Amino acid sequence: MQQPPEFFNLDSQSPVEPAMGPPPVPNQPAEIADIEARIDAAQRLVSQADSRQNQVADASAENCLDKLIIQIPCFNEAETLGLTLDELPKQVPGFRQVEWLIIDDGSSDWTAEVARKYGAHHIVRLPKNQGLARAFMAGLEECVRQGADVIVNTDADNQYRAADIEKLVQPILEGQAEMVIGQRPITKTPHFSPAKKLLQKIGSWVVRKVSNTDVADAPSGFRAMTRHTAMRLNVFSEYTYTLETIIQAGQKNMAVVSVPIRTNPDLRPSRLLKSIPSYVSRSAMTIVRIFATYRPFHFFAVPGLACCLAGAFLYMRFAYFLITAGGVGHIQSLILGSMLLGVGLAGIVVGFVADLISVNRKLLEKIDWRLSQLDESLEQQRQTPSRPISRPAESSSEVLP
Fold this sequence. Notes:
Order of helices and strands: EEHEHEHEHEHEHEHHEHHHE
Strand order of the largest sheet: 9-7-8-6-3-4-5-10
Number of strands: 10
Radius of gyration: 35 Å
Helix content: 40-55%
């Protein structure tokens, strides 16, 4: 007959009786009270952990901004817009909702239809082609009307990596910037010619000097800005917005930073860079106009002072020869000196007048910004105490020139 197995105590190596049935239930009241106290303590620890987790979740929700709108100015971009929209994010950390806005700058192809097909939330239609700068401003105005807290601008030719939008808005979410410019790897971009790379560097250097900012890639169109920054920008150029907005932001003491981004392979030639001479002349004219608008005294008075000094030198030259040699044959110095003095004094006077006009312009811009804020507050009071989160899936508006 088979014997049952023996159980040994590992310490004594002596056989012990096998444990049969359920473990013994403590009968002493002290043991039962101790177990209940341990259960209560464990339940309290679990409750505290759940409470802390809920507090963290509530704090994260409170720190999130309401809405991010990604805008794309388009002119006959039906071939590349679908690829661009297909890569745009539908959610970005730090925002409760993300929407897309397309500015149709008088396109003659199927740009608007492609935008609807790929789920664009808003479409702004311009009756005719008005240029990149006006399309950009029309988009900003519509983004503000749609309640955007942060606006990201990108190109329709899929030049910029949409995955870098999260990196682009991070300085704004952290409170370190009001405008963020994406810095492209210009020296490592294969489809940029050496001349274009050189012009990009020179243009960025000039913009840094004029705007008192540290922007490494001024012509970059991949940028993010806060709602109030968008409300304070005014673009006068019809060619491009990239240089003027940075100079304006610098002159208005806004916090402007650059972040490195990535680019995609080139899908089509640039429509702004038709030729090197055209690009240089238009960019130079834009910088000159902006400098005359935002630093008029320096723009007019400094050359005027230089003319006055040159005229005074010629006057002293004429006086020297007049005293030493009777002034014979040096009447040209007197005529040229008089002309330079006249031009210099006129430049200084124009500089003072332009500076006074510039002060009035700044006051008008400030008034316009305050009125926009007042309109926004009244609109919020008419709707609800806080801006609603849910909005229509798509809206279409027509912006007149």
